[in-house]
Amino acid sequence: PTKRESLTDMPENDRFKIVFTGNIGYAQGLDILPKTAAILKEKGICCDFVIIGDGRYRETLEQEISKANVKEMFHLLGRKQPDQIPAYLAWCDAAFISFADNPLFEKTIPAKLQSYMACGMPILAAASGETKRILKEAGAGLSCKIGNAEALAEKIVQMSRLKKEELETMGKNSLEYCRREFGKEMLVGE
User: Fold this and answer.
1) Which of 18, 35, 65, 188 is deepest in the core (most CB within 10 A)?
2) Where do the H-state alpha helices sit in the chain?
3) CA angle 53, 111, 170 (to 5 degrees)
4) Cβ(138)–Cβ(117) below 8 Å
Protein backbone atom coordinates (compact mmCIF):
# COMPACT_ATOMS: atom_id res chain seq x y z
CA PRO A 1 0.00 0.00 0.00
CA THR A 2 0.96 3.60 -0.42
CA LYS A 3 2.09 5.69 2.53
CA ARG A 4 -0.61 6.68 4.97
CA GLU A 5 -2.45 9.82 4.02
CA SER A 6 -4.69 11.81 6.31
CA LEU A 7 -8.16 10.28 6.06
CA THR A 8 -10.70 11.92 8.35
CA ASP A 9 -13.17 9.01 8.18
CA MET A 10 -10.67 6.36 9.32
CA PRO A 11 -10.39 5.30 12.96
CA GLU A 12 -7.17 6.69 14.45
CA ASN A 13 -6.22 4.06 16.98
CA ASP A 14 -3.75 1.20 17.15
CA ARG A 15 -6.31 -1.60 16.77
CA PHE A 16 -5.79 -4.27 14.13
CA LYS A 17 -7.71 -3.04 11.07
CA ILE A 18 -9.33 -5.31 8.50
CA VAL A 19 -10.67 -3.75 5.31
CA PHE A 20 -13.28 -5.00 2.86
CA THR A 21 -13.78 -3.07 -0.37
CA GLY A 22 -16.41 -3.46 -3.05
CA ASN A 23 -19.94 -4.66 -3.47
CA ILE A 24 -21.84 -5.32 -0.25
CA GLY A 25 -24.11 -8.00 -1.63
CA TYR A 26 -25.45 -11.37 -0.59
CA ALA A 27 -22.81 -13.29 -2.59
CA GLN A 28 -20.00 -11.77 -0.51
CA GLY A 29 -20.94 -13.68 2.66
CA LEU A 30 -20.38 -10.64 4.90
CA ASP A 31 -22.84 -11.96 7.47
CA ILE A 32 -19.79 -13.70 8.98
CA LEU A 33 -18.33 -10.37 10.15
CA PRO A 34 -20.82 -9.35 12.89
CA LYS A 35 -20.72 -12.92 14.25
CA THR A 36 -16.94 -12.89 14.22
CA ALA A 37 -16.82 -9.44 15.85
CA ALA A 38 -19.11 -10.67 18.65
CA ILE A 39 -16.76 -13.62 19.31
CA LEU A 40 -13.74 -11.31 19.38
CA LYS A 41 -15.52 -8.83 21.67
CA GLU A 42 -16.46 -11.64 24.07
CA LYS A 43 -12.78 -12.63 24.20
CA GLY A 44 -11.75 -9.03 24.87
CA ILE A 45 -9.99 -8.65 21.53
CA CYS A 46 -10.39 -5.28 19.83
CA CYS A 47 -10.14 -4.76 16.10
CA ASP A 48 -11.76 -2.55 13.49
CA PHE A 49 -13.64 -3.71 10.41
CA VAL A 50 -13.49 -1.03 7.73
CA ILE A 51 -16.11 -1.57 5.01
CA ILE A 52 -15.77 0.49 1.84
CA GLY A 53 -18.54 0.15 -0.71
CA ASP A 54 -22.27 -0.23 -0.96
CA GLY A 55 -24.87 -2.70 -2.12
CA ARG A 56 -28.18 -4.44 -1.53
CA TYR A 57 -26.97 -6.19 1.61
CA ARG A 58 -25.67 -3.07 3.38
CA GLU A 59 -28.84 -2.29 5.34
CA THR A 60 -29.13 -5.90 6.53
CA LEU A 61 -25.44 -5.90 7.48
CA GLU A 62 -25.95 -2.75 9.56
CA GLN A 63 -28.90 -4.42 11.33
CA GLU A 64 -26.80 -7.52 12.05
CA ILE A 65 -23.99 -5.34 13.43
CA SER A 66 -26.48 -3.61 15.77
CA LYS A 67 -28.08 -6.89 16.80
CA ALA A 68 -24.65 -8.36 17.64
CA ASN A 69 -23.86 -5.22 19.70
CA VAL A 70 -20.54 -4.60 17.91
CA LYS A 71 -21.14 -1.17 16.31
CA GLU A 72 -17.92 0.21 17.81
CA MET A 73 -15.91 -2.33 15.77
CA PHE A 74 -17.37 -1.34 12.37
CA HIS A 75 -16.74 1.62 10.12
CA LEU A 76 -19.00 1.57 7.04
CA LEU A 77 -17.55 4.31 4.89
CA GLY A 78 -19.69 3.99 1.77
CA ARG A 79 -18.43 4.26 -1.79
CA LYS A 80 -15.06 5.74 -2.60
CA GLN A 81 -13.41 6.57 -5.90
CA PRO A 82 -11.12 3.78 -7.17
CA ASP A 83 -8.07 6.05 -6.94
CA GLN A 84 -8.81 6.60 -3.22
CA ILE A 85 -8.78 2.89 -2.31
CA PRO A 86 -4.98 2.47 -2.00
CA ALA A 87 -4.88 5.19 0.67
CA TYR A 88 -7.53 3.34 2.70
CA LEU A 89 -5.73 0.04 2.26
CA ALA A 90 -2.54 1.67 3.57
CA TRP A 91 -4.35 2.40 6.87
CA CYS A 92 -5.30 -1.23 7.34
CA ASP A 93 -3.38 -4.30 8.43
CA ALA A 94 -5.21 -6.88 6.32
CA ALA A 95 -7.77 -7.07 3.53
CA PHE A 96 -10.81 -9.37 3.77
CA ILE A 97 -12.45 -11.63 1.21
CA SER A 98 -15.43 -13.88 1.78
CA PHE A 99 -18.15 -15.61 -0.17
CA ALA A 100 -21.56 -17.05 0.38
CA ASP A 101 -21.44 -20.86 0.47
CA ASN A 102 -21.87 -21.71 -3.22
CA PRO A 103 -19.90 -24.29 -5.24
CA LEU A 104 -19.47 -21.71 -8.03
CA PHE A 105 -17.06 -19.71 -5.84
CA GLU A 106 -14.77 -22.75 -5.44
CA LYS A 107 -13.54 -22.39 -9.02
CA THR A 108 -13.35 -18.63 -9.45
CA ILE A 109 -10.53 -16.22 -8.71
CA PRO A 110 -12.20 -12.99 -7.62
CA ALA A 111 -10.93 -9.71 -9.04
CA LYS A 112 -10.88 -8.46 -5.43
CA LEU A 113 -8.18 -11.04 -4.59
CA GLN A 114 -6.04 -9.82 -7.47
CA SER A 115 -6.62 -6.17 -6.49
CA TYR A 116 -5.65 -6.76 -2.85
CA MET A 117 -2.55 -8.68 -3.96
CA ALA A 118 -1.59 -5.93 -6.43
CA CYS A 119 -1.65 -3.51 -3.48
CA GLY A 120 0.60 -5.79 -1.44
CA MET A 121 -1.98 -6.53 1.25
CA PRO A 122 -1.90 -9.45 3.70
CA ILE A 123 -5.24 -11.19 3.18
CA LEU A 124 -7.77 -12.79 5.52
CA ALA A 125 -10.32 -14.97 3.78
CA ALA A 126 -13.42 -16.99 4.55
CA ALA A 127 -13.09 -18.90 1.32
CA SER A 128 -12.28 -22.23 -0.23
CA GLY A 129 -11.22 -23.51 -3.62
CA GLU A 130 -8.98 -21.29 -5.74
CA THR A 131 -8.86 -18.38 -3.29
CA LYS A 132 -7.69 -20.62 -0.45
CA ARG A 133 -5.17 -22.37 -2.73
CA ILE A 134 -3.68 -19.08 -3.96
CA LEU A 135 -3.32 -17.62 -0.46
CA LYS A 136 -1.56 -20.75 0.75
CA GLU A 137 0.66 -21.05 -2.34
CA ALA A 138 1.61 -17.37 -2.18
CA GLY A 139 2.09 -17.22 1.61
CA ALA A 140 -0.05 -14.09 1.40
CA GLY A 141 -2.51 -14.58 4.23
CA LEU A 142 -4.77 -16.85 6.23
CA SER A 143 -8.06 -18.48 5.36
CA CYS A 144 -10.82 -20.40 7.04
CA LYS A 145 -13.91 -22.26 5.94
CA ILE A 146 -16.74 -20.20 4.48
CA GLY A 147 -19.26 -19.15 7.14
CA ASN A 148 -17.22 -20.32 10.14
CA ALA A 149 -17.15 -17.25 12.40
CA GLU A 150 -15.25 -19.02 15.20
CA ALA A 151 -12.49 -20.07 12.78
CA LEU A 152 -12.33 -16.56 11.29
CA ALA A 153 -12.01 -15.07 14.79
CA GLU A 154 -9.08 -17.45 15.43
CA LYS A 155 -7.40 -16.39 12.17
CA ILE A 156 -7.86 -12.71 13.05
CA VAL A 157 -6.30 -13.28 16.47
CA GLN A 158 -3.45 -15.23 14.85
CA MET A 159 -2.80 -12.53 12.26
CA SER A 160 -3.12 -9.65 14.74
CA ARG A 161 -0.40 -11.22 16.88
CA LEU A 162 2.11 -11.46 14.05
CA LYS A 163 5.12 -9.18 14.19
CA LYS A 164 5.09 -6.18 11.86
CA GLU A 165 7.82 -7.83 9.77
CA GLU A 166 5.73 -11.00 9.36
CA LEU A 167 2.75 -8.98 8.11
CA GLU A 168 5.05 -7.09 5.76
CA THR A 169 6.35 -10.40 4.40
CA MET A 170 2.78 -11.56 3.72
CA GLY A 171 2.17 -8.28 1.88
CA LYS A 172 5.36 -8.69 -0.18
CA ASN A 173 4.42 -12.30 -0.96
CA SER A 174 1.03 -11.08 -2.05
CA LEU A 175 2.48 -8.51 -4.45
CA GLU A 176 5.14 -10.88 -5.83
CA TYR A 177 2.57 -13.60 -6.51
CA CYS A 178 0.30 -11.10 -8.22
CA ARG A 179 3.10 -9.87 -10.48
CA ARG A 180 4.18 -13.42 -11.30
CA GLU A 181 0.79 -15.07 -11.75
CA PHE A 182 -1.58 -12.23 -12.72
CA GLY A 183 0.84 -9.96 -14.58
CA LYS A 184 -0.24 -8.39 -17.85
CA GLU A 185 1.56 -11.06 -19.88
CA MET A 186 -0.31 -13.83 -18.05
CA LEU A 187 -3.69 -12.14 -18.42
CA VAL A 188 -3.38 -11.41 -22.14
CA GLY A 189 -1.57 -14.65 -22.93
CA GLU A 190 1.63 -13.15 -24.33
Assistant:
1) 18
2) 32-42, 58-67, 85-91, 104-107, 111-118, 129-138, 149-160, 164-181, 184-188
3) 95
4) yes
